[in-house]
Amino acid sequence: MAEATAAAPEVRPLVPHLTLGETRDKDYLNGSVCKNCGTRYVGPRLFCGKCSSDGPFEKVQLASTGELYVFTIIHQATPYVQAPYIAAIIDLDGGGSVNTNIVGIEPKPENLKFGMKVKMFTEKVSEDREGNSYVAYRFTPA
Amino acid sequence: MREVAIVGVSMIKFGRYADRDFSQLAAQAGLEALKDAGMNMKSVEALYSGNLYATSGSGQRILQQMGQTGIPVVNVANACATGSTAFREAYFAIASGAYDVAMAVGSEQMGKQGLLGSRGDPATSLEGRVGSYMMPAVFGMAGMEHARAHGTQMEHFAMASVKNHFHSTGNPLAQYQKESPLDEVMNARMIAYPNTLLMCCPTGDGAAAAILCSMDKARQFTTQPIKIAASVLTSDPWSVRDETLADINTLTRNAAKIAYEQAGIGPEDLDQVELHDCFATAELLHYENLGLCDEGMAGKHIASGATWIGNKIPTKYEEDIAPFVDKTYKPKTKTVVNASGGLLSKGHPLGATGVANIAEIVFHLRGQAGARQVEGSKIGMAHVIGLCSACTLNIIQK
């Protein structure tokens, strides 16, 4: 019997709506546009909840810049997550909204302004037992 | 469709019942409701059981405690709107003519598993939206959406806790019956801005039950049948930020429009509302969603005293709240909100909540609410939101 060969470790996006490029500065958020009604979704999509159709969907690259819609500052987190941190909704330039964290500023309400400009960055956040690494996105003030 | 009446209700004190299981809590509530209605299990033709965390067959397990008469059982799960959805199913079963008498029972045993710990999923913890989908974050952001649109301050939201904790001191069935002045609410440990610990509902165990009956048969059981004037359920229509923030507003507004039409009343006719104050931020949003005040006026509305029992700020809190009072503001309704102490005090055993809200309104309509009685209450509404997303509204009247 042939021995199973271990696959070479991969770099993987942590969520399906993040597409990885050759380098981290080429990473982008992907989306889907319903060709029936024009609604723009974050990530892959098979059906449209707005117009009740199966699209079809066109894959698009979403902007890496946007504006802060609303935020909260989480002080009570699940045990393995360090608090406080900023949880926010970002309206991406050109359409689409994402839940994310804003980092690079103190997590205090006075540091956050509705509508403030933010930009995305990606980084490796974890590794599994097979050595595959995982890349996630966050935002910082632009 | 036939008119439907409520002829019996009960709610057990919400809290911690480590030595009992949900079916025993529910059976206690069910038997008390039967006693309240002056009937026994032999009169009940169908059972609608709301429970979220129990494995399948919650209603059958309750009947094993309460009386196995072989009646049809429907088990309902609809997030926080579980109990009120079970109630609505019972309502339709009677309104349609299928049965004359049905029981809706809501129950939950959550233990000390809080909302924070209940659905933790390590697989999503690092994905760049850490904590965004936990309830404290959702309702923190929903409040911030109101702040963004209307300039609402944290103190305005905190006043909902001051009011509801004040109301709870008259409710022996509430899990907590402890007052909290504004500075205590503001300075409590922050959970998810702008909600502090005292602006989050406690979790716990509880049960509530209601006996529904066709109006034409109701007088066999009671001299005070309570009429169900509207029973409405909505889900959230598509909205542009669907994928990021559960919209608790639109589906409540849609439900309110239908409920007021069904009942043939407006918000100004409501003597009281039990609304879904799972977090203090939510209470203010629903003032506007239910039409108790105009758009953007929720902060002024609570500071005016309109939603407090007696329609005024208690003397001891006047000084704290004075900086937020707009003397030119004229409240368009005098509907008392959450006379029970709300979920913020009463607790929120998920499946029990929607039936307990209805029981609370019935207590007031009958004049049985004791120290928290809304004087002369003739018509009330029970509102529940479950994510994501269901909204139930029931308007009930003498």
Give an account of the 3D structure.
The complex is a heterodimer of chains A (142) and B (398). With 142 residues, chain A is an all-beta fold. Chain A has strands at 11-13, 18-19, 28-34, 40-42, 57-61, 65-74, 85-92, 97-102, 117-127, 133-141. In chain A, the strands form two sheets. Chain A has a six-stranded mixed beta sheet, with no helix packed on it. In chain A, strands 2, 3, 4 and 5 form a four-stranded antiparallel beta sheet that branches. In chain A, a hairpin with a 4-residue loop joins β7 and β8 (97-102). Chain B is α/β, with parallel strands linked by helices and 398 residues long. Chain B has a single domain (4-113, 201-397), classed as Thiolase/Chalcone synthase (Peroxisomal Thiolase, Chain A, domain 1, 3-Layer(aba) Sandwich). Mean pLDDT of chain B is 94; it is low at 115-130. Chain A binds chain B through residues 14-15, 18, 41-42, 49-50, 69-78, 80-81, 84-85, 87, 89, 91, 97-101, 109, 114, 125-126, 134, 136-138, and chain B through 116-117, 120, 122, 125-134, 136-137, 140-141, 144-145, 148, 189-194, 238, 240-245.
